[in-house]
Specification:
- InterPro entries: UCP033535_lipo (IPR014582).
- The protein is elongated and about 90 Å long.
- β2 and β3 form a beta hairpin.
- The model has no long low-confidence stretch (mean pLDDT about 90).
- It folds into 2 domains: about 45 residues; about 60 residues, no CATH class.
- About 0% of the residues are buried.
- The longest helix has 26 residues.
- The chain starts with a helix and ends with a strand.
- By secondary structure, the protein is of the alpha+beta class.
- The strands form 3 sheets. Strands 1-4 form a two-stranded parallel ribbon. Strands 2-3 form a two-stranded antiparallel ribbon.
Length: about 130
C-alpha cells in the first residue's frame, strides 16, 4: 500500500513538472534574434520635435499653469544668513511645499513670473538667461 502511494505521489509530481514546463515553454518567454532587435531599433526613429509637439498644448502648458508657483513666493521663503547662504535644512521644508527633491538631492521648483529678458548666453551647454 505504501509503495502504491509513493508511486502516485511520484506520478503527480512528474505530471506537474511536465505541465509547468509546457506552460513556461508556451507563455514564459519569446525568442528574438539579435538581428531582429537591431532592425527594430533602426526602424524606430525618435523625432524630438514631433514628441514635444504632441505634448506641448495637451500636457506641458496645462501642467505649468496648474502647478507653477510664483518665483517671488519661493524666494521670499528662503532666508539667507549674513554671508548670503542658507543651510540645506532650511531649504527642505520650502522645497517640500513648493517643489520636489530629486534622487540626487537637487531641489527643483516649477515657477512662474514676469520680467524683461536683458541677455541670453548660449555660448555654453548650460546657457543662461538674464532678466
Amino acid at each position: 500500500m505504501e509503495y502504491k502511494k509513493s508511486k502516485i505521489k511520484t506520478l503527480i509530481i512528474a505530471i506537474s513538472i511536465v505541465g509547468l514546463a509546457i506552460l513556461l515553454w508556451l507563455y514564459g518567454f519569446t525568442v528574438v534574434s539579435i538581428q531582429q532587435v537591431e532592425e527594430l531599433k533602426l526602424s524606430e526613429k525618435f523625432d524630438p520635435k514631433a514628441f514635444v509637439d504632441g505634448i506641448w498644448e495637451s500636457k506641458l502648458i496645462p501642467t505649468i499653469k496648474e502647478k507653477a508657483v510664483d518665483l517671488s513666493l519661493v524666494l521670499g521663503k528662503i532666508k539667507p544668513d549674513d554671508s548670503g547662504f542658507t543651510s540645506i535644512d532650511n531649504l527642505i521644508p520650502i522645497t517640500n511645499n513648493y517643489g520636489l527633491i530629486t534622487v540626487g538631492e537637487a531641489h527643483v521648483y516649477m515657477v512662474k513670473g514676469q520680467g524683461k529678458v536683458v541677455d541670453v548666453n548660449t555660448k555654453t551647454s548650460i546657457g543662461t538667461l538674464e532678466l
